[in-house]
Amino acid sequence: MECVFCEIAAGRAAASVERIFAVSRQIATAARGALECPGVNLFLADGAAAWQTVFHLHMHVIPRWGRTDGMRLIARRRRPDRAELDGMAAQLAGRVPR
Fold this sequence. Notes:
Helix content is about 40%, strand content about 10%. It is of the alpha+beta class. It has a two-stranded antiparallel sheet with strand order 1-2.
């Protein structure tokens, strides 16, 4: 059997958030056992600006061995003020389907 994400991308299997996360957790559990990694990151990118390079929904399951394994997410940390956060929340709320 092909991987479930390939099946979804090819239109041969239905996708749902629950299924994607359930399969990702199964793969993460397998990675912990088979690779003896103490942790796993689940990473989903949406859009080129978010580092997405394959433009269909897929989840990266990344085995982790701690801070020495070389994986880094570097961001400039900025703390927006309350008014800016409230403004962003209002913009998002106006776009979320109910």
